[in-house]
Design goal:
Strand 12 and strand 13 form a beta hairpin. The chain is globular and about 80 Å long. The strands form 6 sheets. It has an 8-stranded parallel beta barrel with strand order 1-2-3-7-8-9-10-14. Strands 15-16-17-21-19 form a 5-stranded antiparallel beta sheet. Helix 7 runs parallel beside helix 8 and helix 10 packs antiparallel against helix 11. The chain contains 17 helices and 23 strands. It is an alpha/beta fold. Helix content is 27%, strand content 18%. The longest helix has 17 residues. The structure holds 1-deoxynojirimycin. 1-deoxynojirimycin binds next to loops. The site of 1-deoxynojirimycin has 8 residues, from loops.
Length: 578
């Protein structure tokens, strides 16, 4: 077994049940990452062969998009068999080999689990249609004769679905679906459905999977007179799910996909008895807004609305992922602003969001993109990176649905970007060829050999983050300098204190920060280990370049060596009470 030098494989680190607090996640679409058998579609063997790349990037946990048998009408979020591997991606053995190979490298793996719905191709639904109420699976779904039932519920895929009900002629009733009509919702009022899901989780966790990103959790239960989202009964079931995992697979993580307003998202942590992690949907669009407005208000305002979360819980921070940049949970005014700034061309929009990758969104503005990563890495939570964003991949807004941000990974300048050795026309999606983003220039090989590439920059940043557990575990205290173009905060964990200062503006700024509480301390820049002038009683002056940022360790006044202790993060005075 080859152990990477830069991952802590000590039994304590690998066994810690709250490993997700220090993790760096990487979202991978098996289909898009690497094709091992030359059929034009990515697969587990291809992904396994690229694990060293993922490890060397500094990733410690892979998140797989659904890999189960599926008609792929929603790229696998339409599951036809919860216990298998899609034949396009390989065999169960290939999956197991991949999992072992990831674990050998100290990389954990979580996978998407779609609990809210299945595919209309799933045998449960087929049988329910075939035999109607006589089928043991009929009650696995939600039926009605009255399509006006649950009329207060929004339609999420509003570009394609006119209603959450679709008529099933053979049954003579309508069935309920919160997403596409080929994705019938499962009926979580049925205890058998509840049990089925636990069995499925048990199966995959038993294989060694390290957890699940649980899809679309707010919609499990329906009740008349409500919007059928975030209902207490849904939370009750999710708590059961967590208890099951704790009992049978301690150490596995559950990550909630709940695209909701701040207080509703935070509910998915429960009292530490529901999800370990939840995507920080509220903050994501506000990062884009704050940078375009050159003002910290959007970020500060939303953070003020986010409740404290239980001690063992963690936000999943992200800038982009496989879905559109969703604008469902912003005000009308904020939505108009975002569309106006980031999606002027109609093709960039889908449902209530923007289907573009990070680099095109930011017009390849390297400084602004680095700044966004400063926020991603230093605001409370664990970062999630989206495959391809680390090399600055572009998108293709002329492809349907969200395919434009799910194109083949660009490995080199060869045929099919090194993704596959199939004929180009056989690829499941075309590679990006447009000037500025073409695989000939934007690819892993090129990024790796260019010392100043974004990829190499990101690797360094991830190393700094890894060496400083304070970012994943520390508390946060916002500083409120008069210059609102600057967002500054202090992160504290045990005896370590780090100050982060971000210039959201495209122009130089100076900022005066009240740091009297640290009188006599020295800020040391974490990138170059450069000590800055000591903090005094007067406001601390920092000058910043366009979109610049600093990560400073605040080092207390020197004390004689015999009065200090060595910690992973530096040398500190012995606390007074020891
Ligand atoms: C949420 C997933 O992120 C999205 O990609 C999918 O289309 C819907 N759930 C429906 O499954």
């Amino acid at each position: 077994m080859t152990l990477p030098q830069d991952i802590d494989m000590t039994p304590n680190a690998m066994a810690a049940n709250d490993w997700y607090k220090d993790a760096v996640f990487y979202e991978v679409f098996v289909r898009s990452f690497a094709d091992g058998n030359g059929d034009g579609i990515g697969d587990f063997n291809g992904l396994r062969e690229r694990l060293d790349y993922i490890r060397d990037l500094g990733v410690t946990c892979i998140w797989l998009l659904p890999m189960y048998p599926s008609p792929l009408k929603d790229d696998g979020y339409d599951i036809a068999d919860y216990y298998g591997i899609h034949s396009d991606y390989g065999t169960m053995r290939d999956f197991e080999d991949f999992l072992d190979a990831a674990h050998e490298r100290g990389i954990r793996v979580i996978a998407d689990l779609v609990v809210n719905h299945c595919s209309s191709d799933h045998p449960w639904f087929k049988d329910a249609i075939e035999r109607g109420p006589a089928s043991p699976y009929y009650d696995y779904f939600v039926w009605t004769e009255d399509p006006n039932k649950y009329s207060e519920v929004r339609v999420i895929f509003c570009d394609t679905e006119p209603s959450n009900w679709t008529y099933q002629p053979k049954v003579g009733k309508y069935y309920w679906h919160r997403f596409f009509s080929h994705q019938p919702d499962l009926n979580f009022d049925n205890p058998e459905v509840q049990e089925e899901m636990l069995k499925i989780m048990d199966f995959w966790l038993g294989k060694g999977l390290d957890g699940f990103r649980v899809d679309a959790v707010p919609y499990l239960i329906e009740r008349e007179g409500t919007n059928c989202e975030n209902l207490p009964e849904t939370h009750q079931y999710l708590k059961k799910m967590r208890a099951f995992v704790e009992q049978h697979h301690p150490g596995a993580v559950l990550l909630a996909e709940a695209n909701q307003w701040p207080s509703d998202v935070a509910e998915y942590f429960g009292k530490g008895d529901e999800f370990h992690m939840a995507f920080n949907f509220p903050i994501m669009p506000r990062i884009f807004m704050a940078i375009r407005k050159e003002d910290r208000q959007p970020i500060e305002n939303i953070i003020n609305l986010l409740p404290e979360i239980p001690a063992d819980c963690q936000w999943a921070m992200f800038l982009r992922k496989d879905d559109e940049l969703t604008l469902e949970m912003v005000t009308d005014e904020e939505r108009d602003y975002m569309i106006g700034e980031y999606a002027r061309d109609k093709r960039m929009r889908i449902n209530v969001g923007i289907r573009r990758r990070l680099f095109p969104l930011m017009e390849r503005n390297r400084r602004a993109i680095e700044l966004m990563h400063s926020l991603l890495m230093t605001l409370p939570g664990s970062p999630i990176l989206y495959y391809g964003d680390e090399i600055g991949m572009g998108d293709n807004i002329y492809l349907g649905d969200r395919s434009g941000v799910r194109t083949p990974m660009q490995w080199n300048g060869d045929r099919n970007a090194g993704f596959s050795n199939s004929d180009p026309s056989r690829l499941f999606l075309p590679v990006i060829q447009d000037p500025g983003y073409s695989y000939q220039g934007v690819n892993v090989e090129e990024s790796e050999r260019t010392p100043s590439s974004f990829l190499n920059w990101l690797k360094r940043v991830l190393r700094i983050r890894r060496d400083n557990p304070t970012f994943g575990r520390g508390s946060i205290q916002f500083l409120h300098p008069a210059n609102t173009r600057v967002l500054a905060y202090i992160r504290t964990y045990q005896d370590d204190t780090v100050m982060v200062v971000n210039n959201l503006s495209r122009f130089c700024q100076y900022v005066e920060i009240d740091l009297r509480a640290y009188d006599g301390w020295t800020p040391v820049d974490l990138f170059g280990k450069i000590p800055f002038p000591k903090i005094g009683e007067l406001p601390y002056l920092v000058t910043m370049g366009p979109h610049g940022f600093y990560w400073f360790r605040l080092v207390p006044p020197t004390v004689p060596k015999e009065h200090t202790v060595e910690a992973a993060s530096g040398t500190y005075p012995i606390p007074a009470d020891s």
